[in-house]
Amino acid sequence: MNQKNTRVQSGGPGGPRGVPMGKPEEIKKTIKRIFVYLKGFRLHIAAVAVCLLVSAASSIACTYFLKPLFNNFIGPLIGRQNPDLSEFARILTLMALLYLSGVVALYIQNRLMLEVSTRTLYRIRADLFSHMEKLPISYFDTHATGETMSRYTNDIDTLRNMLGQSLPQFLSSAVTVVGVFLAMLLLSPSLTILVVLMLLIMLKIIAVLGKRSGAAFKRQQRALGNANGYIEEMIEGQKVVKVFCHEPVSKQEFDKLNETLCDASVEANTAAFLLMPIMSNLSYIHYAFTAVVGSLMAIAGMLDLGTVAAFLQYTRSFSQPITQISQQFNTLLSALAGAERIFRLMDEQVETDNGDVTLVNAVRDENGELQECDHRTGLWAWRVPEGDGVSYVEVRGAVVFDHVTFSYDGKKTVLNDVSLYAKPGQKIAFVGSTGAGKTTITNLINRFYDVPGGGITYDGIPIERIHKGDLRRSMSMVLQDTHLFTGTVMENIRYGKLDATDEEVVKAASLANADSFIRHLPHGYDTVLQSDGDNLSQGQRQLLAIARAAVADPPVLVLDEATSSIDTRTEALIERGMDSLMEGRTVFVIAHRLSTVRNSNAIMVLEQGRIIERGDHDDLIAARGKYYQLYTGMFELD
Fold this sequence. Notes:
The chain is built from 19 helices and 16 strands. By secondary structure, the chain is an alpha/beta fold. The strands form 4 sheets. The protein has a 6-stranded mixed beta sheet, sandwiched between helices. The protein has a 4-stranded antiparallel beta sheet with strand order 2-1-3-4. Strands 6-5-8-9 form a 4-stranded antiparallel beta sheet, with helices on one face. The longest helix is centred in the middle third of the chain and has 53 residues.
């Protein structure tokens, strides 16, 4: 097993994994970063602001018209025979037009915010995925897949709700509150004092419940991420779960996570749901109290009937947006917590690459000197900057480890003072028990991890000078864990060389002994693979992975347990087929089956991160050491 797989786990095998979500400690910074994405929509946002003001103003103005309607028409016209209603009808028509303008403005506002929120989330997802692609392998080795996926699902969804609904509603309610308050102040400063007192009570309740529910919503979001991560892990490992009859334990572990999520959700939503009935009842009390006081003032001649009617309507209009603000506040907090998680992933340190040596296609001139060209020739060269000029070094696959010491976590040493060399065209095999450091060597060759101690050279060039992308293009890997993408068989093989022709793909498949079974698939090379190739056997998937490496036609091959899932008969056919592929190339092989490494030019026997034996098969058998014991069955590789 690869020693770098040290993901966070709890609850035993199959337990929940994930990095706990911290509190949103940088709310201002998060808001600023969200607004950076909104900069490209200045015109949209300006139009939304205008529509928001029009919508709020139309509602406030229509309510104010109640004062002249009561004072100038309804009251004076009561009991009058054949009253003139033309002016009354004109005001009603004006009110209808104002309401209609508010409705149109609200529609435009919602439509524009839909465009803004959708495009903003598109950009955030694009930046998030782009940044994720630049992260080092160490990040994915130490973070659960489900936890990373929750950024694209839960957290993006909360942002969508905030930008598309909660934020516009929050701002609209805030504008309405301010506008209504000014209108009430204009109508009756005395009654407005009651509004201020009730507002202070409401704000105090909102602060108490908001603080409680805000913390609970953060716990809910964290619990949801853990539950989703566990579900994804169980879906991927269903075969293992069933083979070992682990269903009861898996369900028990999920029940714990589900209960945690349930408790957090109940706590979060209890405070949120309590807020609305409390605020509604307070608004009713406020309305009734204002009606009593206003009526007494009207009887005493301190206010007219129209003012009381308009003020009471404003009272309802005032409490409703405050309730909406309090409801949206929790949603905004949850969205900001999700946004902070997204930006935290974006702030993860990307894979550093200071390499200045690049891989180029080359040809030889009449003097035999290497020259760079712009088309594939089958001859590759390293373009090495030297002062004001450049030199070209043919890619031959000479790899040297010079006293390399390495640790994944800085605590446990995985490789200890390892020195080895692979001449161009040699086949180098690594054998040893699990955890001896075999896979780590191949991880260092392609710079999945950088070497803190010692050095590695590739064709005489320090490996840290070579640009990572070019370094990895110069070699192909067949990993122990095969991964196939959704697409046709042809597309999966072509993944190793995107410009490969159909003929090259078929040739690579034949070389890997995969052509025969591919042609027996329902649609041959056009058969669509899904769910990581679940409709294929493990051996067939491995054959496609080998064909994918073969089509790249690289100078270096890395085979990490490449034939571990293939029967010995098929393995023998593959090895014969790959002999021509390996010819003239440097090949690194990791294998448990010692029969597959007999023809290697050099065999390295590793134990606890050290090379304890080296030589070809005959030399190591003659030495009658560890390799001899393993080969003759006196010891077994675990």
